[in-house]
Design a protein that fits this description.
Keywords: ANK repeat, Repeat. This protein has 213 residues and is mostly helical. Helix content is 49%, strand content 0%.
Length: 213
């Protein structure tokens, strides 16, 4: 989940890793920079706390320290991305309630939080995020939606869940000139998902036009 460091200027980073509420508060009172970043990765104390699911540290860093909730690592991942990646539901909820941007990053290799949860096939995290107000049709690079991602990987239960949560079954992406979730499922041979989508009313014509069905 992360490594502790002996660098004195990263003491707050270590305190967040340990979920040491008292030490975090003390260091902040001493003037430590709440948004200090690891020189190699760019991770912040809040990112580490979110990655570890350390709620006490998260709360102190935000409420007392005024941490930048959306300050990202060098690769673009935010603290909310970390919570989604490591399945820390309560941390994700705390960050969203504190105002975290659930739509970033929008481009690049690092996915936004809901897509991360889908890629990890973490249905509980998906429900946590959507129930907290995250857009179930959240767009990532090339305009793909979480349902597109789930369909591509053949996550049938995840596909059913996303449909139940209100996902747009015919949402067109920028891939292949407008590929939809059923296109992704058909292209990657996910026949069960194709059937699920068709039963839910998905239009098969885009997949037929692309030669996937």
């Amino acid at each position: 989940m992360g490594e502790k460091t002996d660098e004195p200027f990263l003491r707050l980073w270590d305190a967040a890793f340990d979920d040491d509420e008292m030490k975090v508060s003390m260091l902040l009172a001493m003037g430590e920079d709440v948004n200090q970043q690891d020189p190699d990765t760019g991770s912040t104390p809040l990112y580490i706390a979110a990655q570890c699911g350390n709620l006490k540290a998260i709360n102190v860093l935000i409420s007392s320290g005024g941490a930048d909730i959306n300050l990202a690592k060098k690769d673009g991942a935010t603290p909310l991305c970390a919570a989604a990646q490591y399945g820390k539901n309560e941390a994700a909820l705390a960050l969203i309630e504190a105002g975290a941007d659930s739509e970033t990053p929008r481009d690049g290799d690092v996915a936004p939080p809901l897509h991360i949860a889908v890629i990890k096939n973490n249905m509980e995290m998906v429900m946590t995020l959507v129930d907290a107000g995250v857009n179930v049709n959240q767009r990532w690079k090339e305009g793909i939606t979480p349902l597109f991602t789930a369909a591509k990987f053949g996550y049938s239960d995840m596909v059913r869940l996303l449909i139940k949560l209100g996902a747009n079954i015919n949402a067109a992406s920028k891939r292949e000139g407008g590929a939809t979730p059923i296109c992704a499922a058909a292209q990657f041979g996910q026949h069960m998902v194709v059937n699920i989508l068709e039963k839910a009313g998905a239009d098969r014509r885009p997949a037929e036009a692309l030669g996937f069905l």
